[in-house]
Specification:
Length: 274
C-alpha cells in the first residue's frame, strides 16, 4: 500500500502573460501533464514546449529546479511528484522487480523524457482539471495515471542491459536475491554471493540493480527495515531480539537505521501500537 502522503498532485492554471513558478526538489520524480492547451517551460536561454495532451517526466538526483511555466493562452497543468523509492514500489508492485524496459530512470543521476499522453492519461487529466473540488476523483485519477504510464507494457525506454538478455543470468540474479535474505543474521558478502550463484561480482551488481532498482546493500537494508517493522507489529520480541535476528551486533545501529527509515525509534513505534 502506498500512502497518499508519498505522492502529491497539484493543479495549476497558467494564464496568458503570467508565469506560474513551481519548485522541484532534488531526488523527486516529477510527472508534468498538459490538458488541451500547450505550455512553455523556460530552461536557461531556451524554452521547451509542452504540447497539448503531453507527458514530461524528469528526475535529478543532485539539483533542485524552479520552473516558471508560461502559456500563450490559458492552460491547465497537472503535476504529480513522488520519491524515487515510491516510483520503484509502483513499478515493481506485486513482484518487487522492475520491468526491464522501464528501468532507465534508475540508472542515471538525472532523467528527462517527453511523450504524448495515452488515451487513458488524456481522459484522467481532463477529469482532474474539470473536477478540482472532487478530491476523491482526483486521488483515483492520480493513481490511474501512474498505473497507465509506468505499468503500461508498451512503454519503451532506452536503457537495456545485454547481460540480462540471457534467461540463465536473470535466474541467477533472482537466486542471489533469495540467498541474500535467507539468513538475515549472517548476510553474505557480495563476493560469497557471487560465488554462490556462479556470477562475477560486476555482473551480479549490475544485474541486481537492473532487476530490483537498488544496489545489493540498499536492497538488503530496505528488506531488513521492512522485516523489523513486521516483527515489531507482531509484539512477540524485544527490540534487542529483533536487532539480533536481523544481524545487528550493535542495537544502537539498528535503532539508528530504523529511525532513519521511519522517522521514529523502534521503541516509540512499539509503544504507539498500544
Amino acid at each position: 500500500m502506498i500512502s497518499d502522503n508519498n505522492i502529491s498532485i497539484d493543479i495549476h492554471s497558467v494564464r496568458e502573460n503570467k508565469s506560474v513558478a513551481r519548485f522541484f526538489p532534488s531526488e523527486s520524480i516529477n510527472v508534468l501533464l498538459s490538458d488541451q492547451q500547450a505550455l512553455e517551460i523556460p530552461m536557461g536561454p531556451r524554452s521547451v514546449p509542452l504540447p497539448p495532451h503531453s507527458v514530461y517526466i524528469f528526475y535529478d538526483e543532485k539539483r533542485d529546479f524552479t520552473f516558471n511555466f508560461q502559456a500563450s493562452q490559458e492552460a491547465s497543468l497537472v503535476i504529480i511528484s513522488m520519491t524515487i523509492d515510491t516510483l520503484h514500489h509502483i513499478i515493481a508492485q506485486g513482484t518487487d522487480e522492475l520491468n526491464f524496459s522501464q528501468s532507465a530512470i534508475f540508472q542515471k543521476d538525472s532523467y528527462h523524457h517527453f511523450e504524448p499522453a495515452s488515451t487513458t492519461v488524456k481522459r484522467c487529466v481532463h477529469e482532474i482539471v474539470t473536477n478540482q473540488n472532487n478530491h476523491l476523483l482526483i486521488e483515483a485519477k492520480k493513481f490511474a495515471i501512474l498505473d497507465d504510464y509506468f505499468n503500461n507494457k508498451s512503454l519503451k525506454m532506452t536503457y537495456k542491459c545485454p547481460f540480462l538478455n540471457q534467461k540463465e543470468n536473470v535466474e541467477k540474479v533472482r537466486a542471489a536475491k533469495d540467498y541474500l535474505i535467507k539468513d538475515l543474521q549472517e548476510s553474505p558478502t557480495i563476493k560469497s554471493l557471487a560465488k554462490e550463484v556462479a556470477l562475477n561480482e560486476y555482473n551480479l551488481k549490475t544485474g541486481f540493480k537492473e532487476i530490483y532498482g537498488k544496489t545489493i546493500h540498499s536492497y538488503l537494508k530496505e528488506y531488513k527495515m521492512a522485516k523489523a517493522r513486521e516483527l515489531i507489529l507482531k509484539k512477540e520480541y524485544q527490540i534487542a531480539e529483533i536487532a539480533d535476528q536481523l544481524g545487528y551486533t550493535n542495537v544502537s545501529h539498528f535503532i539508528d537505521a530504523f529511525k532513519k527509515k521511519y522517522g521514529i525509534t523502534p521503541k516509540k513505534f512499539e509503544l504507539s501500537l498500544v
